[in-house]
Amino acid sequence: MNRRTTAPDGLVIVDKPSGFTSHDVVAKMRGIARTRRVGHAGTLDPMATGVLVLGVERATKLLGHLALTEKEYLGTIRLGQTTLTDDAEGEITARADASRVTRDAIDAGIAKLSGAIMQVPSKVSAIKIDGVRSYKRAREGEDFEIPARPVTISSFTVHDVRDAVAEDGTPVLDLVVSVVCSSGTYIRALARDLGADLGTGGHLTALRRTRVGPYGLDAARTLDQLQEELTVMPVAEAAAAAFTRWDVDAQRARLLTNGVRLEMPEEYAGAGPVAVFDPEGRFLALVEEQKGKAKSLAVLA
User: Residue 2: which pLDDT band, with cuts at 50, 70 and 90?
Assistant: First the structure.
């Protein structure tokens, strides 16, 4: 059992178990790390497993920026059944024989859902509609629409197609897929939309997130493993892995930590968040180029 008395600054990469909400994992980590200052970089549905990035202490300042990074998933889409939640946890609302769907038709449907697309999030999601969570409106039986929003599907690959018969006797197809996508993409919605395009309906039966930005399953630990040994990626190492790095001299480091907006080299224009390090390798701040100067996004020094 870890006997640490003060929580370290850094990221904890958790391999989230099925059945846990992201909030459940945060609550568990607060007990393990013995601090209230724990947050997560983007939610993962209770049914899903895999990479959930948590920030501890000062690293919580990075989470909003880490949440915007690219994500990668491995999942199973079932064609032939539509559910209320677009995944296996929801009630089945429609059925159709999917046994005659061809691989060519599947590939054509996948192509339509690749690249830059407009996606309507699942109704049972955390999206806010006029200040109220979508899932709350759905549970109360409201009739409402969620506006489509732009997402990017960099890769949507079918690795296997399996014939199966559902418990209700419906001939279905189970597709083993991998997806690389932008932040805000709903894999459940991809399953729903692929099934709708093929005329069979579809939903997600399994999902595992294998990567968030630079952090993959190889760096992830289960909650049981973390209970035994709290493995924290130091905040400087985490920032260097996730963001463009800018090393400054001692004078610039001092000016930056005193609130002066430094001139930024042209090479960082349009680079997004940039991690600033002093000559000793200490992570000072996360900044962004704005009109040639460094606008602070998060100061850690």
Answer: very low
Q: Check: CB of residue 70 under 8 Å from CB of residue 182.
A: yes
Highest mean pLDDT of the ranges 36-45, 130-139, 205-214: 205-214
Residue 25 has pLDDT above 80, yes or no: yes
Q: Tens digits of per-residue pLDDT, 42-76?
A: 889 899 999 999 999 999 999 989 888 899 999 99
Exposed/middle/buried for residue 279 (C-beta within 10 Å: 0-12, 13-18, 19+): exposed
CATH number of 71-209: 3.30.2350.10
Mean pLDDT of 260-284: 93
CATH architecture observed for domain 10-69+213-234: 2-Layer Sandwich (3.30)
Domain 243-299 in CATH 2.30.130.10? The answer is yes
Task: For residue 45, indicate whether it is catalytic.
Answer: yes
Q: Could you state, in order of their start, the residue ranges of all structural domains in the chain?
A: 10-69+213-234, 71-209, 243-299
Domains 71-209 and 243-299 share a fold: no
Please tell me the distance from the alpha carbon of residue 155 to that of residue 73, in angstroms, as a whole number.
10
Q: Which amino acid is at 76?
A: T
Whether 124 and 84 have beta carbons less than 8 Å apart is answered as yes
Residue 3: is its pLDDT beyond 70? no
Question: Catalytic residue among 45, 87, 174, 193, which?
Answer: 45
197: Cβ–Cβ under 8 A, 6 or more apart, which residues?
A: 109, 112, 113
- Cα–Cα separations (whole angstroms), residue 260 to 73, 93, 251: 41, 58, 11
Q: Rounded CA gap, 247 and 245, in Å?
A: 7
Which stretch of 119-133, 181-195, 208-222, 223-237 has the lowest confidence by average pLDDT? 119-133
